[in-house]
Write a structure and sequence with these properties.
Structural class: alpha/beta
Strand content: 15-25%
CATH topology: TIM Barrel
Oligomer: single chain
CATH architecture: Alpha-Beta Barrel
Number of helices: 11
């Protein structure tokens, strides 16, 4: 376990505890990501191919409380509404979010911080919930990337001062970005997360011409991330066979875990829990 130098001595036991809880004593993380209530409105929770249970937030928390999952990432407000009923979950509080109503072709994306690290610390103390870290999205390539980079830099430093683990969602996006899935650009995004001091970075998997090219791109991204651990997003729902294949390839190419949401919570609870156990077996078997 790497203890970043910006974590003061008094906060290091707290960081070790939080990091170990999320990674189950490894350097890998299975992150159950469910910040979509704001990001995607209702479209990921109701419709064709989506189990009816997904429409109610308790479905998310019922999944998140399973021991197979390392951490559950969602907004503070949702945790405030339901967290007291699910007090064994290891939470990562997503500090900023935006809807998808404004298309990037119309305006470059900007995700303003909604809660501060101080808010999270205060909430953790009063709620007694297992808040282990914070997360933030940065859209590199946006005209507002400077504001988001500043948010991320200050958030990481302040979170580390309190012994919290940090995760950055790093997405190339905006009118100047020709392709969001270019391997070299994603490597750059991972490198930025490392330069900002993040413990983990969540990025989209790269597009590639063939298996060998994809593996090379994945390895390039992991190298660029340095000591920041790479988590690949699961994206839209697809078959479990493809999901497991992708995870195995990513892990063998240097990633340190996954951040999956829709591929899990759009399923019935029983199936979702089975998927979580299978994913956990892949991620935490080092």
């Amino acid at each position: 376990m790497l203890i970043p130098a910006d974590i003061p001595l008094h906060a290091r036991p707290e960081f070790r505890k939080n990091y170990s809880a999320l990674t189950k004593g490894t350097d890998r993380l299975f992150l159950f990501a469910a910040d979509h209530k704001i990001e995607h409105l209702d479209q990921d929770f109701h419709g064709t191919g989506i189990d009816l249970a997904a429409h109610h937030p308790t479905h998310l928390f019922a999944i998140a409380q399973q021991k197979s999952i390392g951490g559950f990432a969602t907004q503070l407000g949702l945790v405030a509404r339901y967290g007291s009923y699910f007090d064994t979950v290891h939470y990562i509080i997503k500090l900023n979010s935006k809807t998808n109503l404004i298309n990037s072709d119309f305006k470059d994306p900007f995700s303003k911080q909604l809660w501060s690290v101080d808010d999270v610390i205060s909430f953790k103390k009063t709620s007694k919930l297992l808040v282990c870290g914070v997360g933030l999205t940065v859209y590199i390539g946006s005209l507002d990337e400077d504001r988001m980079l500043a948010q991320a830099a200050q958030t990481i430093y302040q979170a580390h001062q309190q012994g919290l683990v940090t995760v950055l969602w790093m997405y190339p996006r905006g009118k100047s970005v020709l392709s969001e899935h270019t391997g070299s650009l994603l490597a750059g995004a991972a490198g930025i997360a490392n330069a900002l001091g993040a413990d983990f970075v969540k990025i989209q998997p790269p597009e590639a011409e063939n298996y060998e090219h994809l593996k090379a791109q994945l390895e390039l991204i992991s190298q660029a991330a340095g000591t920041t651990k790479v988590l690949y997003a699961g994206g839209e729902k697809h078959s479990s066979e493809k999901l497991f294949h992708d995870i195995q390839l990513q892990l063998s190419s240097g990633s340190s875990g996954v951040a999956i949401g829709r591929n899990i919570y759009q399923n019935p609870l029983k199936e979702a829990l089975e998927l979580c156990q299978s994913i956990s077996d892949l991620v935490y078997t080092v």
